[in-house]
Design brief:
Length: 453
Amino acid sequence: MRVPLGDRGNEVKDLQRSLNELGAKLAVDGIWGPLTEAAYKQYGSDLVDEEPEDDTEAAATGKLGGSGKDYTEDNPTGRFNVIGGNPEIWFNTDTNTYLVVYDVPNSDPPLPVYWEVPDEQTLQAYFGPDIEILADRAVTNAQLVSYGALGQGFSTEMPETDQDPLLGWAEIYERQATVRPYLLEPEVVGLIMGAALEGRPITQAELESTQWWQTHSEAQREWLIKAEADPVSAQQFADANRIRVVEDLKNAGINQPPDSLIDYLATRFTHGEWNENVLLSQISALSDPASVHALLPETAAFLSGIGMDLDTTMGEEDTVRNLLQKWLGPSYGKWSDEMIADKAGLLRNDPDAQQEFIEQLKSQRLALFPTYEDENMTYQDIAMPWRNFAFGQWGEQLDETDPLFGTLLQTNDAIENGKLLTREGLKRGVGKVTTDMQSMIMRATGGSVVRAE
């Protein structure tokens, strides 16, 4: 089975498995890429051979390029190497370097992009040592401009991957589109390509005629102009915004935020999708559950989609609640959600804040219950014996948020608290207190209690 570079399908997967059995180490991805081609050249003689068809002769002989496509003024780029096909190899006579050329994904008409390779040896190192290089055509720098070809860098920037290189180029283009999102807009891409064919930059007037321009914000338009006119300054601007977002997250109590979150926030701010108020509102909503701001649906969907668990002030709220219960109890330690969130933010931002908070709670506990002079006695230490005492008197648990329970703790005297529980129990009709009082009266009178009619 011999097929052209770039073809794919289940038959290719079967062949890749067969080649692996003979010693190749291929990803069984169903793509006949350079690595599969090289493995076939090495191990193919051990497979059942077939005569190649005319249209597969290039692959059978290990040739890359040499398509002989026509380039005319009406069609200067040809309909070459659409995603899923072979790359073309051009030779730049001005720089004496090879160019590996692909089409921009989804561009119509096709927009060529290329990577520059210094020599044939480097090209073979990437595509395979047994691939014969046949340049499709020789070009000059001026011709590249007239074709609208977009340079994507040098061979040193090529992705190191076992994938078909075609996929690598597509991925790189998609990454560029994350910085220049308008590259995904066919109308804008068409204008950029048309201007490139004429050897000039795209004008603002042309951009203003597009639907993209009319439906996007002023900040988004400014980013497009900046990114096209001065890519270096645009990248510096993007980098500065990323640093700014990291600092904003840190100030909001989100420590060690994942890169995906930083990129999500910084990208929307840089590209003009969000203004500063929106950015800060989303950071506030992420870090503070008591914030007046809410997550935008797109932000909520982003977090849900990646299952992100942020290390935020929310993680300290339970700590605050537990300390309040420990030192002040359910009545005196009842704080609003807003107060708890504020304190949690302090604990997150200051490593010494928790101990300072504990010392503050100790002072409050001493002021509330001064008869317990040991400052290390918590509310829980104080409350435990009086819980049992009240239960013995009433035969039921006394609600600790009831002011009566606070009075028991402050009085801290068994005789006085016994009298207090009896009086209150009779007032409230507590069954055990009423029964015990009747029994005590009967014993005191030596008989039964006669109820008046």
